[in-house]
Amino acid sequence: MQNRIATRQAYGLALVDLGKNNPNVVVLDADLSKSTYTVKFAKEFPERFFNAGVAEANMIGMAAGLATCGFIVFASTFAIFATQRALNQIFQSIAYPELNVKIAASHAGITVGEDGASHQSIDDISIMKAIPGMTVIVPADSTEAYQATIAAARHFGPVYLRLSRAPTPQVLPEDYTFKIGKACVLREGSDVTIVACGTMVYEAMAAAEKLLSHGISAEIINMSTVKPIDRETLLNSVMKTGCVVTAEEHSVIGGLGDAVCAVISEEYPCPVRKIGVKDQFGQSGKPEELLKVYGLTSDDIVQIVLNLKGGRV
Amino acid sequence: MFETFELVSNYTELQSIALRIRKSIIKMISQAGSGHPGGSLSCVEILTALYFKVLRLNPDYPEDMDRDRFILSKGHAAPALYATLAEFGFIPKEWLNSLRKFGSPLQGHPDMKKVPGIEISTGSLGQGLSVGVGMALGAKIQKLGYRVFVLLGDGECQEGQVWEAAMAASHYKLNNLIAIVDRNRLQIDGNTEDVMSLEPFVEKWKAFGWMTVEVNGHDFGEIIPAFQIIPYISKPLAIIANTVKGKGVSFMENNVDWHGKAPKHEEAEKALEELEEKVCELV
Hints:
heterodimer; A: 313 residues; Rossmann fold; 2 domains; seven-stranded mixed sheet; five-stranded mixed sheet; B: 283 residues; alpha/beta; 40% helix; Transketo_C/PFOR_II (chain A); Transketolase_C (chain A); Transketolase-like_Pyr-bd (chain A)
């Protein structure tokens, strides 16, 4: 797969491949098929694609109905609409009856950029995590997004797949294999564990490079399945490094950071710092400008790690 | 496609089933100490007609791929559905004693994971028709002949999602989707027309591209013929069934207080006596 394509684009490619191999795959969209890349599936398999129009709640209900007929249903829209406009429908019609629906939520996070706060989903991980039985996946790059889409189709039950708008650099090795619920240590280190998901994995990797010049060896974990979280990989790392920094393109409330804190506080209490959007709304701007303003760059990670380690290095 | 199950052919027999269902509803809710008698009693004839005259279902084989689907979008009428499923043979009658009790399959609102014959879990209003649209699309993709029937409450039609679904159903020309609205004109806070008016209600469905039929929802002579036009329709069908909330129990009829209140022991006894008298009248 070529470098620097958006995770949503890889999702679109994966859907087409799934469609070829499995006649039970059905895709829904809510008038955003060109943006979510479901348009590719729509062109190849028009009889298995349904546009719900600008009606997310109804789309989720339609997905539930199709799932009861034995279809593997992918319902796509922007993250902000999937989780905020159709939340009760996801809870009642999908999650409660444990139906086989994958909610593919693109344009998540603050890097959706210029459209501004109304379109920047920064609470979706938190919301979806709270729903019983919902699996939450945040792919780090297009390789992982492609594999996660295939894995979601194979996994029976509701899945929330969080995708982003902006192209992401490749961070995962060629031979990487995604597995739901399995985190991946991307870089070994001994002084601090940095747990990241989505676009922040790349920033974490860049931060690890920069930290070397400060004499700090950072271990990087790509926690692409935020729920259920891979406790084992996390704890193995923390027992070695003794402290954690989490990084996510999401509010610091209720997301990856809080999921990590829950594990750490129960099993191995140690210092944790969370990087994410503070308790505030976003604004219009270029993705890179916003990452900077909201403290989501590799330099921010470096700074937090340096503060955390204090004089102990 | 399998044969239509003409379980019951005569209206008197249907009326006696309906009375048994009404009695079950009163007993169940009274035993549970909570529940929704008003909206359960108003849809009894609709459910009876569906299960004993219309739906292609096999009581011995609830999972048949080509079965007709029924969705109780007004999930709070669960006691009516449970009592009907027990009469029909999908669930044991003993289950009815456990309504809303800890560990019971008969949850306060229908749970598809716990009860055979429940096609989708409902309760939060306004969602059933969307699920019906999905099921009806599923039948089209699978080239199966099953039909999808969705029973909605009238108050529920104040949810925007109902009209999103109505729009989608006509857009996708779902002539295998039938919505039945239990138009009992009462909702928790009072008359639907005072709380948030629905009229002109039939015209609304028409405007959304549906074929419509208005019937007396307690008269089998009107309900059953309405379903007989299904094989000839080219668009989704909405049956507006005018009903009486609390139907069959004099002190509950048209009384909004009985929307979500369980009858006390003496009240239940009185209701059952009244229903028993009606049973005697039938014979």
